[in-house]
């Protein structure tokens, strides 16, 4: 069967190092660090007192006061990144068949702030009458997808994905398959997260997943470094507009890159730890390359999952070396999480954007804080500064608790 080709025509980002794609990219290539002490709550009793929060985000710049009280920050971030993506794709919504325009937009956790705040209100008053009538639609993870669809009247396939840290990549992969299958011509896809809150920081601390370098928090997100001791939580949203090639060409769209292959696998091993040797990651990357009809030698860059946790970074490095053999040392690998922290369900969205822009600009952003490389992590990680390299094809990896693996393969567009 002839596969419909799918291209990327729009991008939108709300990140800890910049709101808007241009600000995000400029911060990435200059190695800006988005990690600061937490301002959202009192961290006195918490083991981790820092995260990568969104800076200078005033909801009143984007929303009416009434609607702010009815939406969780994860939905607000999603709506802002969606708007930028639609504008950057130069879509005239009056001329688009909205029944062929869908939304798949995920969140790993959903409305954590709403859940926590309404929970506090109820247990302080012991009165269910204190619970907001908007609590459920503020909390549930599908409401970002729903709100985007409602705002723009997009009537194609519409749902959310939830697969922990692989969430946004699964949303993009599903959107890709839906276009290939012919169920839609254009899709808005990605993920959003706003989980810097007491329950999530406390919960990840309880499972010893977060870095606790409170005295060196700027250096705490250090993927592939020997001294790494846990991830740093981030928040934000990343949106892609992808569309069927002829649909894009017919409307004169600016094509940024082509999404050419996807690889989706499961570790079937452990609820939080990766499979030994990154076995599931090997299969997801291999599947993406085969799906794109490419060979391992066509891959110039990998935006790694690179969480700065002891297990992930070694296992992902092993996976790359297992699949690519000697070519692994010619690939420029990086982890943008060194700058943005880990956006959980939104990670795949902002990292897909970083991957696409690396292809467009032939420039791989740095992995900052990589000053003492782990001997087991011996690839080219674009340490400390951006790496100019011709990027023909690149893979964005995301792996989630539960053993979910997703690899997205993007390449330079050629007619």
How does this model look, in words?
The protein is 33% helix and 19% strand. It has 415 residues and is α/β, with parallel strands linked by helices. The chain folds into 2 domains: 244 residues, Peroxisomal Thiolase, Chain A, domain 1 (3-Layer(aba) Sandwich), CATH 3.40.47.10; 151 residues, Thiolase/Chalcone synthase (Peroxisomal Thiolase, Chain A, domain 1). The strands form 3 sheets. Strands 1, 2, 5, 6, 7, 8, 9, 10, 11, 14 and 15 form an 11-stranded mixed beta sheet that branches. It has a two-stranded antiparallel sheet with strand order 3-4. α3 packs across α6 and α10 crosses α11. It is globular. The model has no long low-confidence stretch (mean pLDDT 97).
Quick description:
33% of the residues lie in helices and 19% in strands.
Short descriptors:
415 residues, alpha/beta, Peroxisomal Thiolase, Chain A, domain 1, 13 helices, 15 strands
**What does the radius of gyration come to?**
20 Å
CATH class placement of the largest domain: Alpha Beta
Name the beta content range: 15-25%
Q: Summarize the amount of helix as a percent range.
A: 25-40%
Structural class: alpha/beta
* CATH fold group of the largest domain: Peroxisomal Thiolase, Chain A, domain 1
Q: State the CATH superfamily name of the largest domain.
A: Thiolase/Chalcone synthase
Pattern of helices and strands: EEHEEHHEHHHEHEHEHEHEHEHHEEEE
Largest sheet: 11 strands, mixed
CATH architecture type of the largest domain:
3-Layer(aba) Sandwich
């Amino acid at each position: 069967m002839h596969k419909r080709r799918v291209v990327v025509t729009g991008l939108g980002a709300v990140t800890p190092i910049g709101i808007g794609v241009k600000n995000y990219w400029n911060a990435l290539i200059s190695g800006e660090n988005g990690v600061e002490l937490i301002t959202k709550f009192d961290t006195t009793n918490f083991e981790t007192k820092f995260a990568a929060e969104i800076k200078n985000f005033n909801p009143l710049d984007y929303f009416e006061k009434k609607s702010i009280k009815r939406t969780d920050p994860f939905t607000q971030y999603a709506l802002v990144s969606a708007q930028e993506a639609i504008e950057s794709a130069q879509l005239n919504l009056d001329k688009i068949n909205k029944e062929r325009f869908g939304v798949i937009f995920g969140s790993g956790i959903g409305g954590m702030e709403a859940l926590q705040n309404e929970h506090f209100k109820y247990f302080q008053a012991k009165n269910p009458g204190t619970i907001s009538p908007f609590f459920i639609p503020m909390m549930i993870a599908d409401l970002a997808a729903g709100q985007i669809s409602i705002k723009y009247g997009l009537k194609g396939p519409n749902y959310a994905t939830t697969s922990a840290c692989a969430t946004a990549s699964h949303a993009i992969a599903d959107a890709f398959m839906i276009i290939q299958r012919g169920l839609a011509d254009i899709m808005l896809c990605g993920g959003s997260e706003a989980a810097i809150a007491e329950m999530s920081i406390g919960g990840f601390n309880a499972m010893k997943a977060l870095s606790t370098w409170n005295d060196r928090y700027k250096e705490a997100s250090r993927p592939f470094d020997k001294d790494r001791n846990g991830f740093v939580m981030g928040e934000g949203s990343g949106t892609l507009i992808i569309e069927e090639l002829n649909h894009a060409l017919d409307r004169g769209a600016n094509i940024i890159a082509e999404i050419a292959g996807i690889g989706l696998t499961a570790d079937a091993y452990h609820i939080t730890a990766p499979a030994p040797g990154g076995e599931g990651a090997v299969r997801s990357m291999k599947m993406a390359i085969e799906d794109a009809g490419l060979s391992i030698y066509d891959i110039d860059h990998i935006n790694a999952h690179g969480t700065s946790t002891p297990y992930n970074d070694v296992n992902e490095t092993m996976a790359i070396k297992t699949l690519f053999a000697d070519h692994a040392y010619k690939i420029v690998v990086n982890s943008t999480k060194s700058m943005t922290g880990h956006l959980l369900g939104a990670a795949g969205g902002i990292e897909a954007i970083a991957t696409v822009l690396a292809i467009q600009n032939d420039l791989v952003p740095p992995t900052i804080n990589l000053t003492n490389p782990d001997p087991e992590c011996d690839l080219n990680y674009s340490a400390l500064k951006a790496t100019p390299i011709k990027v023909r094809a690149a893979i964005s990896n995301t792996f989630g608790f539960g053993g979910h693996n997703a690899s997205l393969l993007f390449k330079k567009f050629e007619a």
